[in-house]
Amino acid sequence: MSNDKDGKDRGFYDGNGFDNLTGPGAQQAYDFWDRLEEMRKDEPLKGNLYDPRVSADFPQNPCNLPINLMLWPERMMDFVMLRGEPGGEFPPHTHGYGDEIYLIINGEGIVIIDGVEYEAKKHDIFWIPAGTPHTYRTPADKTESFDIFAVNVPGVKHTMRSTYWAGPPKGKMAGDNA
C-alpha cells in the first residue's frame, strides 16, 4: 500500500489510470511529454525583464517574456514585460479568462481601466478584473519607454490570448459616448 503526504491510500491510483495510458493516442502523449521535458531541460527559470527569451511583437508595444513560458502550457499564470514606446498605444481589450495586474517598472503613461484614465508612473500598480476593458498608452512627448510588468491569472495557451484580445471590448473606454 502506498500513501500520499496526508497518509491517504494511493493504491487505486499508483500504476493505474493516468500512470498507465493505453489506446491509439497513448504513445503520442508519452512522446509529447518526453519531448517537452527535453526542451525544458536547458531553459532557465530565471530571466531578466530587459533580456527577453521570447517576444510577441505589436507595433510600438512589444510584449517580452523574460522566461519562455510557452514551454509550460500547464502553467497557472502568465507574465510579460510590455514596452510602450513614446506615441504608442495598445488597443483596448478585455481578458474574459481571468484577472490581470499592471506594475509600472519605468517611465510614465496612461492606463485606462473601464473608462477611467489614470496617470501612471514607476511603481504604480493596477488591478484589472476579468472582463474589464483596459488599455495603456505612452504620450508622444515622453522620451523613454513606458514599461509595464503584466501578470495574468490563470495562464492560457498563447493562441487563446490573441483570440480573447480580438475585437473591441464590451464596456466603456475613455472617450466613448455610450
Structural description of this entry:
With 178 residues, the chain is an alpha+beta fold. The protein has two domains: 1-42, no CATH class; 54-165, Sandwich (Jelly Rolls), CATH 2.60.120.10. 13% of the residues lie in helices and 28% in strands. It contains two helices and nine strands. The protein has a six-stranded antiparallel sheet with strand order 1-2-3-9-4-7, with no helix packed on it. A three-stranded antiparallel sheet has the order 6-5-8, with no helix packed on it. It is elongated and about 65 Å long. Mean pLDDT is 86; it is low at 174-178.
Name the features.
2 helices, 9 strands, 178 residues, Jelly Rolls, single chain, elongated, alpha+beta, 2 domains, 28% strand, 13% helix, three-stranded antiparallel β-sheet, disordered C terminus, six-stranded antiparallel β-sheet
Secondary structure layout:
Blueprint (H helix, E strand, L loop, with lengths): L25 H15 L13 E3 L6 E3 L12 E7 L14 E8 L1 E6 L2 E6 L3 E4 L5 E4 L8 E8 L4 H8 L13
Antiparallel strand pairs: 1-2, 2-3, 3-9, 4-7, 4-9, 5-6, 5-8
Total separate domains: 2
Radius of gyration: 21 Å
Please trace the helix and strand order, writing H or E for each element: HEEEEEEEEEH
Strand content: 25-35%
| Stretches with pLDDT under 50, minimum 5 residues | 174-178
Q: Looking at CATH, which topology of the largest domain would you report?
A: Jelly Rolls
CATH class of the largest domain: Mainly Beta
Structural class: alpha+beta
CATH architecture label of the largest domain: Sandwich
Helix content: 10-25%
The tally of helices reads 2
Give the integer mean of the pLDDT values: 86
- State the fourth-level CATH superfamily of the largest domain: Jelly Rolls
Total count of strands: 9
> Termini distance?
65 Å
